[in-house]
C-alpha cells in the first residue's frame, strides 16, 4: 500500500511537471509570435511570469530591461502606501477660524479650511461628496454662532507645497481631468466639467453649453472644431496649474454620445474656499473679502492667520477604500497624493521626488535592485518611468504575504478573465497582476510593450496571457 501511494504521488508530480513544462512551452511560443508580429517590429517587449506560491520564474524575456510602465506603476504605489501608511490610514481635513466671534455673531477673522492632502474630499465616489462636505461645514459654522464674517475664507493647501504636477508630465495631459495635479486641499478630485455641443457640419464651431459646476473665475477660449460623425472626442484642454485661462483644442464629433469633457481645476484650494463662500452667501452668511488661499496670500506677502478654534474635522475613507478606486478606475490624482503622503510619513518633504525616493528605498530594503526602479511619479502618467517587469513581479509576489493583501487584491480590475491592472500611454501597453487557472495554479504576470505601432495591441497581449488559462 505504501508503495502504491508513493507511486501515485510520483505519477502525479510527473504529470504536473509535464503539464507545467507544456504550459511554459506554449507561453514561449505565443510570446515569440508576439515578438514576430508586425506591430512589435520596432518595439521592446517584456514578460515575466512567476509561480505565485513559490516566486519561481516560470518564463521571462527582457525582464531586466526598464520600460515605461504607464498605469501598472499604480500597483507599486498602492503596495508601498499599504506598507508605509497602513490599510486603515485616513486623511483629516479641518475647518477652523481665526480671530473672535462677537456677541452678535460676527466673526472678526477668517474661516480656514486646512487641507491634509486628502485626494477624495468632495469626490462623488464616497460619503464625503461635495454637498455633504459643504453641509457639514455650514452646520459647524452655524453651531459656532457665526452669522457674518469680517474676513475671508482661506483654503490652506501648504502641506503639499506649490508644485502640483510632477516634472516630466506631458503638456497635452496636464489640463485634462486625468492630468489633474495634487493639492494639499484637493476638491472634487480636482476637476470640473465643460458641456459641449457639436455643430451640424464640420464647418461649424463647437458650442460651450456650460460648466458644471459654474466656474465664472475661469475664462475658456474655445478653439474646438466640429468633427465628422464617428470621430468622437478628440478634444484636449490646455490649462496650466494656477491659471484662469483654458484653451480647448481639437475636435468634438457630430453624433457623439457624451455631454462634454472633464478638465483639471487650476487651483483646487481656491475652488474649495470659493464653493464654501458661495454656499454661505446663499444662506445669508456674508463675507466682506474674496475667497483666497495660503499660496495667494504668500504671493501678496500676507501672513496666514493663527487658528483660534477648530470647529469641524472630516475624515477621508480608509486607504483600503481609496486604493479600491485608485486601481479600479486608475485615478492618477490618488497616486500622486499617496506618493507625497509616503514622503511625509517617511520624514521627508512632501514632494513627488522625495516620495519616489522613499518608495525606491523601501523596496530596495526588500531586496529589489535600486537600478530596476526608476520612478518619476506615483501614477505612471510620466513617460519617463522605467521599471523592469521582474521588479514589478517581485513586488506583486511579496505583497501576497502582507495582512493588507486581500484589500489590495480586491482593488485589481478584471481584464481578459484575470485580476490585472492595465497601463496605457502613448505607444505603451502593459498589464500586471494575478491569475488562477482552471486547475487552481496561481501565477503572477507582468507583460509590457513599448513603442508598438498601430492599434488593437491588447488582443495580442491577451493571446500570450491566455496560455496561463
Task: Give a structural overview.
It is built from twelve helices and 23 strands. With 469 residues, it is α+β, with helices and mostly antiparallel strands. The protein has three domains: 204 residues, DD-peptidase/beta-lactamase superfamily (Beta-lactamase, 3-Layer(aba) Sandwich), CATH 3.40.710.10; 123 residues, D-tyrosyl-trna(Tyr) Deacylase, Chain: A, CATH 3.50.80.20; 94 residues, no CATH class. The strands form six sheets. It has a six-stranded antiparallel beta sheet with strand order 2-1-23-22-21-20, sandwiched between helices. It has a five-stranded mixed beta sheet with strand order 16-8-6-3-17. Helix 2 packs parallel to helix 8 and helix 8 crosses helix 9. The chain is globular and about 90 Å long. About 2% of the residues have low confidence.
Report strand order across the widest sheet: 2-1-23-22-21-20
Using the coordinates shown, work out and report the CATH topology of the largest domain: Beta-lactamase
Unreliable runs, pLDDT <50, ≥5 residues? 8-16
Number of helices: 12
Q: Whole-number average pLDDT?
A: 95
Strand portion: 15-25%
Instruction: State the oligomer.
Output: single chain
- Identify the CATH class of the largest domain: Alpha Beta
Helical amount:
25-40%
- Let me know the largest β-sheet: 6 strands, antiparallel
Can you count the beta strands? 23
Please give the alpha-carbon distance between the first and last residues.
35 Å
The CATH homologous superfamily of the largest domain corresponds to DD-peptidase/beta-lactamase superfamily
